[in-house]
Structure formats: structure tokens, C-alpha cells
Amino acid sequence: MIKVDVYNQQGKIVDTKKLDSDIFEKEINNDLVHQVVVSLLSNKRHPFAHTKTRSDKRGGGRKPWRQKGTGRARAGTIRSPLWRGGGVTFGPTKERNYQKKINKKLRKKVFLMCLTDKAKEKNIYVLDKIDLQEIKTKDFFNILSKLKIEQNKKILFSLDDKNIKTIKSARNIKNIKTIKITSLNILDILKSDYLLTTVKGIDKIVKHYKQI
Question: Which end of the chain is more exposed for a tag (fewer CB within 10 A), N or C?
């Protein structure tokens, strides 16, 4: 069973916390992680690029000249893709569908793999509690400094409840993102270098994601 140190707000180790093996000790399969990440990123895509075909272009309803006798090539519409201002052949359209189905069990399995990776690499920091007297960025920054977390590293701070003082104190700090534990997701965990939470937060992760 993996154990993590529990820090207080002064950066001192005050306890250790055992991590539930059902959540934080899964076998990691990089191929499955890659498969799910590709699916998630694909599902976020929107087909903004859109070109008009000849049927979408305005005008061109009348045949520009008669079929024979002019010496020119046959033409049925001025909106032909061969003409300037005409439609586009085989261009990107908003009807494209990037959606890729993800099996719910597979997605949960990969999510637990990501948590396991953070635990095994010792990239989970646990506070005994987070208690700020006022909304002040400097106070929250001091807590991070005492934990000796590198400033240039990305931190995902997962909260066990909606703590407005903490959220507002953290939002001006570069490379830190606050998120509710029930909203944790694969992409945010993979993007971050460290996962920061509290003892109650760890308990809530176990309780919530065991039920899913």
C-alpha cells in the first residue's frame, strides 16, 4: 500500500496517509491511456472550418451562355468550382464528426491509472487542511513555497468542498488550477505535474470514484 506524507500549512510533515489500493494501485497500460486521451481530445474538436459547395453559393441559377455556337467551353453555372468565386470541391465542412465513443469502464480504468501514476511518482501532495483567514494570493503562495513545490511546475489543486477563499486566492497564481474532486478528469491530471489536495480530499476521491 502506497503512503504519502501529510503536511500542514507551514510545510511540516505531521502525519502519513495510506492510499486506497483500489484507487491508487492500478496496473498502468500506456496504450490504453493513449487510446482514451486521443478519444477525449477528438471529442473536444469542433468543425469550425466550413467551405461552400456550388449548391451553397449565391447566384448561378441561369446558364451563362448557350450550349453551342459560341466557341467557348460548355458552362452550366457561374458557381462551378472551375470558376473564380465558385464553390469549393472537397473542402472542409461543418458536417464533419470527430466524435469517438469511449467505453465508460475503460475511461474509469484509465482515470485510476493516471491517479496511480501520480502516487507512484510521489507527485501527490496532501495537506492536513487548508484554512485561509482572508482572500489573499500571497498567503496561498506561501503555503506552496513551504511545500517546496517548484514554481514552474503545473499544479492541480482538487478541493473537497467549495472553498471560495482558497479558490480566489489561488486563481492569480501561474500554473495552478483549482478543481472540485467530483470534476477530476484524465486530461487535467495528465497535464499537471503535481496533484495537491487535503486529507478529506483523498477520502472523498476514494468514496466518490469507488461508487462510479
Answer: N
